[in-house]
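hiii, so i know i said id send this last week but things got crazy w the move. better late than never?? heres the sequnce for the chain we talked about at the cafe, plus the structure i predicted for it. fair warning i was half asleep when i ran it
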Amino acid sequence: IASRYRGPSVVTVHDLSHRRHPEFHPSVAVQYLDDGLPRTLAQARVVIADSHYTKKEIHDIYGLPDEKVVTVHLGVETCFQPRSEEVCSAVLAALGLKYRGFVLSVCTLQPRKNLRRLVAAYAHLPEALRREYPLVLIGANGWMNSDLQRDIGPLANAGQIIAPGYVSRADLTRLLSAAAVFAYPSLYEGFGLPVAEAMASAVPVLTANVTSLPEVSAGAAWEVDPYSVDAIADGLARLLEDAALRESLVAKGLQRAGELTWAATVGQTRDVYRS
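okay and structure toks below
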């Protein structure tokens, strides 16, 4: 929400999930955005959107003309890169993990990230696959996740789910580059930066086929219907059992991530402000 200002202003909108999925947010946050965002969009001379998807959302929900909204994709930090087993060994040992021996998901534990369906899909995998590839859920506790914690319990007790909570950026980059598969079947994203970060880390990605995520992955990830537990489970099994598929997605992902740079983001954002 922009401060009131009489001169020209630019506003960046990351997503409009509070309008599409208000049930996934604290009511006070939804009310704050509903009260302030229409004025903000009217005040702004130009609006920057993270994706073409978000640009369309702004147009569809608030009626802004297309010429007032500019898409500027986000970029991937250089700390997200391929790393050897030796470099990752310490953080893996601390969690009892093996290099290329686990499925990883990274997000705040909240309903929009679709973790309950991910956990249910993972539970559908054969026992042997779950023993070989535990599911690691990295992220701080969010909101409305008591059901998720109940779902996690039995698999965590069996050593098949590990949920260390928040981890440092240094540990995160190493865990990401050491994963066998990165799973991110989110229900709604304005951009979906973790998908790009995983691709830059040379990890095959499973993600959703909705909202901005196909725009970010650009054909370099395995896309599934995030509302289908069976589709998520099938995608996980395919990626874990097919080494050639993983290698193909890693190559495509590295190429796609190389197109998403902060230099481009900064340059395009600067051009909007200068205009």
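btw The two ends are 21 Å apart (CA to CA). thought thatd interest u
miss u guys!!
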